Amino acid sequence: MASKSQSNFQDFLPLMAEKLGGDGLIGELCNGFQVLMDSDKGVITFESLKKNSALLGLKDMSDDDLYNMLKEGDFDGDGALNQMEFCVLMFRLSPELMEQSYFLLEEALQSEGFQDFRFPL
User: Fold this and answer.
1) With contact defined as beta carbons under 8 Å apart, do 94 and 14 qualify?
2) Which terminus of the chain has a smaller tally of CB atoms within 10 A, N or C?
3) CA-to-CA distance for 102 and 119, rounded, in angstroms?
4) Terminal-to-terminal C-alpha distance of the chain
5) Where is the EF-hand domain (predicted)?
6) Are 34 and 42 in contact, with CB atoms under 8 Å apart?
């Protein structure tokens, strides 16, 4: 069941990607990581996410929502998000941006001779 904060989420990543280009978007994601991270540990912890999330307009998210977001992006199982995990999570949470990424990758593969390659979307 989606929480109130999740149901009101508006995905701005596709617009940012369009306006900033790929390098600009990655730069902004890195800036977002810097805002949310624990400056002593160099990663986003539950505590740093809870403390700094209001700066990014996420003040209404419950502890469970924040914990689940952290858990979803934590690929190495250390209980925190490093910069790469954070950037991957942001892309995964943006369905439209993921579709655009699949399309661009599919197009690139086809131009390299894989004409029959299609992602099963």
Assistant:
1) yes
2) N
3) 7
4) 24
5) 61-96
6) no
Query: What is the residue whose two structure tokens read 């250390």?
Result: 78
Q: Return the DSSP state at 58.
A: -
- Per-residue pLDDT tens over the stretch 32-90: 899 899 999 999 999 999 998 887 777 788 899 889 989 999 999 999 999 989 888 88
Q: Which residue(s) pair with 81 in the sheet?
A: 44
Does pTM surpass 0.85? no
The CA-atom distances, in angstroms, between 82 and each of 8, 78, 92 are 26, 10, 15
Dist CA 68 CA 62 (whole Å): 10
Residue 1 tokens read as: 């069941």
Q: For the chain, what is the radius of gyration of the CA atoms? A: 16
